């Protein structure tokens, strides 16, 4: 079925146009009349998206890509690799297979992986690609995963699900019951086939909302890549009913930042006025809500209960951005005119009434430069500005 798109001359054309402006290319005459021009353009668009996100696929000859949107929505190799380290055993079934990125990495840790994908065309693409990638322990099924489970007559070491939001719930609060499959409704059914379930959700899902819908949650992983939260992972274990741990991971170019704590453990933060160094947690920690735990574990003070900025006299290693405070000024007309009006600065607001845009417009502050200004509220409830130099960028 892929013979035409896999012709060497078409593959060469696709590779030669990676990153090309497709709106202009689409206006050109199709140089391969035997093949749908839209399909060729889609291969170029999807492969362009895969260059950084899916380097293994991008660098392998003969790979077929689904729609560009499918590539945009799939796991990156970095997050798929992380997930693979959470599972072990002989058999794993993926109920929402998609483009198969996660299963490629699961196959390196699990003896047999079963890829379920209700879209027959996508299932064929994945099967073809696994052959090109020389993966032999993944079996592809083009059917509804509910039926596959019910008819399998077997149990699995792990069951993996990446539920997708239904199209008819746009604009509503993100809830798992509004996704397909409906995991909260099917959880007892799933536990008949595996005692261990791993669920991937979009970062838009509120953690407390997820916990209100799910039971037997053992651990929640918050995964960010280059300080951009990409996904939440929910480890669920049959009959588990104890404390829940939260682990945040920020995967950077040359390092990985981890932070872990127990949910609902009563921790009390310490507070102080700004000292020499300022710390801003990475986005995964911000998503976790473990703000008091940051203060306790790193032995640093918060500026205010709602500011989520931290300070210390002595610099420490920290999972986020680190700054040295050069100056502290009250947020007043006199001080702003003297120190920041008509200047260039990078602005961040935390627990502050005005937005970045309002501040820039009001004081004519241009974006950029080496000066970093934090507009926030201190422990005495005063509005302050911390003028800083950056030491570390998350």
TrEMBL record:
Ranges for domain THUMP-like: 320-390
Chain ranges of the PG-1098 ferredoxin-like domain: 277-319
InterPro entries: PG_1098_Fer, SAM-dependent_MTases_sf, Thump-like
Top-level taxonomic group: Bacteria
Protein name according to UniProt: Uncharacterized protein
Source organism of the structure: Flavobacterium noncentrifugens
Lineage summary: Bacteria, Pseudomonadati, Bacteroidota, Flavobacteriia, Flavobacteriales
